[in-house]
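Course assignment 3, question 2. Fill in each field.
Student: A.L.
Task: Predict the tertiary structure for the chain below.
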Amino acid sequence: MMHKRLKVGWWQKEVSYQLQKFYDDFQNGLRPQLVIQAPPQHGKSVIINDFLLWIIGKDSEKKESELKIIYAAFSDALSTRANRRIKRFTATKTYSAIFPRYQQTFPTNQDLISFGSDGYFRNTTTGGAITGESMDCITKGTLIATNKGLVAVENLNINNLILTFNNGVLSYEWLCNITHTVSHEIYRITTESGRILECTGDHGIFTKHKGYVEANELSVGDNVVCIWQENIHENWYYDTIRNIEKISDEAITYDITVANNHNFFANGILVHNCGIIDDPVKGRESANSATVREKTWDWFTSDFKTRFSDNGAFLCILTRWHVDDVIGRLLETDDTVKSLLYPAIAEHDEQNRKAGDALFPEHKSIEFLKGVKRVMPAATWESLYQQHPTIKEGNFFKPDLISVTDAAPSNLQMVRAWDFAATANGGDYTVGVKLGYDKITQLAYILDVVRGQFAPEEVELILKNTADKDGHSVKILLPQDPGQAGKSQAKSFVKLLSGYSVLVSTVSGDKETRASPVAAQANVGNLLMIRAGWNREFIEELRNFPNGKNDDQVDALSDCYNHFVGKKSGWF
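Answer field:
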């Protein structure tokens, strides 16, 4: 609508149709949830920005404008870019001619655009604040250290350079944003040298030993970073907190955002400029981090989704990185979510293109896409461009090269390695893989897999029954977790398996390193598998490793193979 030079193909028209249907369902109170998965640099952001401009304009035609939009992106840059585009386009003559009743209102800043009687567009980052009030604020009159000296927070403007701190070095950074609101639960922090700071309880204060701590979680005796009020350009020092008290239930407060170091000195004390302290790592590293994925899912379920009204709608357009990302979990747990998948290169004949055709040839030709694929790792191509956060051909393992056989030779040396889940029904599985190894041919055979989400008492029963079934010729490999609990569990299992050959190991090293020896053999056809009902799930886990949701079977297989040909010093 607003991008007159935009290249347009069938894909833009298809997505626009789906967005129109999404909006109609929203207006009819059907609470639609739509996920659109598409490759990078194919115009996703442009389409969504036009859609946002359109629905904001449509809402302005109503007598009471109450449309509330929360827009979350993976970075500040993307989030604020959407904010700027909406401000810029709604101010044009073209937009005013189409939607003459649209009116921007107060407050409006780089994180919020207010319009109509009670509507708004609030942009944030994944994991960031999305509440109607700023999360962390300081009170009116607080002095901020700037390149022009100490300035009261209410007198700051975006031309100010703010004094910041990074690893012991003071430097100036640009002030990006300042907002004010009414906040609750104001705390007063007093230091031994007489520094006094009044702020909301969730404002981050930097401490010597604990990093950033929310004001209401500080303790008397904590050391904080301060500067000399008399000469703010001189070196910093540590001061000690003498007193912390709650002084007010409500006050006018200010929230400022500083670039790069994301901190500033308020009344001489170093504080953070946002309630979320740890920024998530971007890209593949972030996707492969279970901790980051868990934090993002917690934000999505506990913060983002809780802001929805009863008739709210959810729209997500993204490029997939990982099978266990937020959308992967959402699609697995909520069957009311509609998912549309658009691979960069068609994998089969579709309504608008044939297998092998490009998604947006007017912008990214098939020759260009094939060139990208040639130089890109399989995992990245499949995730980003084909929207398969699993690796179809296999990357670490090539499971299609694992032959399935109905019988194994009789002269095999055999072991069964176990990998235990931390809790029953907690997502991980307890797995026991039985592997046979032929020393003459140097071929390995996966003979059996036991797998389930068992309670502790069930694990003991399964362990004992499996050992009885395998017989005394099969060695049993048990992992030992670090700490006293791991030692106690291993000791208990060894006692349970009295009479069998049991080896216990404290497993060390990352999963990929441990799996490399068996993967190398699997990928040249030296690993075989007995035909059984567990084959499909086993193959899928190998196919997705190390990006899959589960890796328990890979861990157990690795331990089996490394017992025969790898480093054996860990077993005792």
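Instructor remarks: The longest strand covers residues 169-183. The two ends are 70 Å apart (CA to CA).
Grade: pending
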